[in-house]
Design brief:
With 89 residues, this protein is of the alpha+beta class. It contains one helix and four strands, in the order ββββα. It starts with a strand and ends with a helix.
């Protein structure tokens, strides 16, 4: 998926480690979200997970995509700085 000047890969993940309200370690389903500077996905700028019941409410690609867009919007200046540095090398 392309969003603004970035390329985003979203991959299902069944083993995202989290800590529940009781303090127990659990594994959750969700997505690995990777943000790249280039179309070929060779230059990774950032990555994070989106676990169901934590960062997203349901196991939905649409929710993961929206989270990725929101993340890029919030971190846009920092991502753009990294993107510019990579392009000036």
């Amino acid at each position: 998926m392309r969003y603004k000047d970035f390329y985003v890969r979203i991959t299902p993940d069944k083993y995202i480690p989290k800590v529940d309200k009781k303090g127990d370690k659990i594994l959750c389903e969700g997505f690995l979200i990777q943000i790249f500077a280039d179309k070929n996905e060779q230059v990774e700028i950032d990555n994070f997970t989106a676990a169901v019941g934590f960062e997203i409410l349901e196991d939905s690609l649409a929710e993961a995509e929206q989270l990725a867009k929101d993340f890029i919007d919030c971190e846009g200046k920092e991502h753009q700085r990294i993107f510019d540095e990579l392009n000036n090398k």
